[in-house]
Design goal:
Elements lengths: L3 E4 L2 E4 L2 E2 H8 L3 E5 H13 L6 E6 L6 H9 L3 E4 L2 H9 L7 E3 L6 H10 L3 E4 L2 H14 L3 E8 L21 E2 L3 H9 L4 E7 L10 H19 L6 E3 L21 H12 L5 E4 L3 H4 L3 E12 L4 E5 L8 H5 L5 E3 L9 E7 L8 E9 L6 E4 L21 E5 L2 E6 L4 H4 L7 H4 L3
Parallel strand pairs: 4-20, 5-6, 5-13, 6-7, 7-8, 8-9, 9-10, 9-11, 11-12, 12-13, 15-17
Antiparallel strand pairs: 1-2, 2-3, 4-14, 14-15, 14-19, 16-19, 17-18, 20-21
Helix pairs in contact: 5-6, 8-9
The structure holds ligand LLP.
Amino acid sequence: MHHFTHRDGDLFAEDVPLARIAAEVGTPVYVYSDATLRRHARVFQDAFAGARALAAFSVKANSNLAVLRTLFEEGMGADVVSGGELMRALKAGLSGNKIVFSGVGKTAEELKLALEAGVHMFNVESENELLVLDAVARDLGVRAPLAFRVNPDVAAGGHEKISTGKAEDKFGVAWSRARRAYEKAARLSGIEIRGVDVHIGSQITELAPFEAAFQRVAGLVRDLRADGHTIDRIDLGGGLGISYDGNTEGEGAPPGPADYAALIRRIADPLGVELIFEPGRMIAGNAGLLLTRAIYVKEGEARRFLILDAAMNDLIRPALYEASHGIEPVQAPQQGAGYGRYDVVGPVCETGDRFASERELPAMAEGDLFAIMSAGAYGAVQASQYNSRPLVPEVLVRGEAFHVIRRRPSFDEMVALEGLPPWLEART
Ligand code: LLP
């Protein structure tokens, strides 16, 4: 569900025609809907109404300060994986006690920063990290609230590059070592054991892998309690998939938050724990699109190419994960223009710079605007300046208003961090 709709053929973000944003801000540009972000935040939290639950938005999915602030206003917390994300969450106005700190390689500096911020929980991923956290906490004279992220060895079915819960993945503490890790933690004075954490992957479109992982976690909680540990929280990570093709009801459609919540309540309610979640894509994915303009239409030998001003450096998901995003014309095509098949590509000098192959689209002309849909999560955050293309800007729409929440950098800003060594300067 989102608030990007066609009115008389023109695509709108809430009450703003996308063509107006393109004219005023230029393209390519990410456009987010305030109403969609808020709706998703509410739907997710409402699904757990009555439970002790913290829905911590996974900041890696979209870390723009205005997006974060919007979600925090709706009561969400934050899941962060670096000092930078932690500082973003704090800067966007969140208090430390609504932040969980995940991540496979946290440094002592980052752990210190998070302890000073008073984060709700550390999701520790190894016994060595445990020792560093203990030392940093003792230095500061505090105790660090801890969960171990455990690896349940469950195949999640999504793309292999975003699966995280199998035995050969780098994530989490090995299942067979988990109880020993808690034993060790219990002996450390800088550590306060609080919970168990699991995250098995992303863009998961069925409930079975979640059920398998969460059942294992529930079993572990019982074992740990039998070992004498206090476990009063479980963090079930993120991973709930979204529809990238508009199919929200039919076969293959991802489960809705209500079904996901019912599964969790069935497994977790008997444990009497606080529930923590780290949804990212489910909140932000369909709340954003990438607005772009066709530069050229080119007749190749075997294909017809639609060459956009957006490229893989702006949205890398198709190149990296073979992801397929909906592509919609922003303005109604000419009457009777018919349809054509296009390879939709960007201008970057790589064959992989392709948004879609042989996609059926209304006949298109140079200068036409398009929206690449479902780009609100893992879009702008994964953008780069490859080919010396400026970082793509971001716009947030609310009703009839819109605001540039990150502007396009100038050329001078793009090179501002670079400097010449003295031997080169000496020659100029
Ligand atoms: N928690 C942890 C520990 C994670 O590693 C992730 C995502 C999440 C929560 C949020 O997962 P979500 O609810 O968004 O599925 N760039 C890839 C996705 C990478 C996901 C990484 N971890 C993509 O564009 O598909």
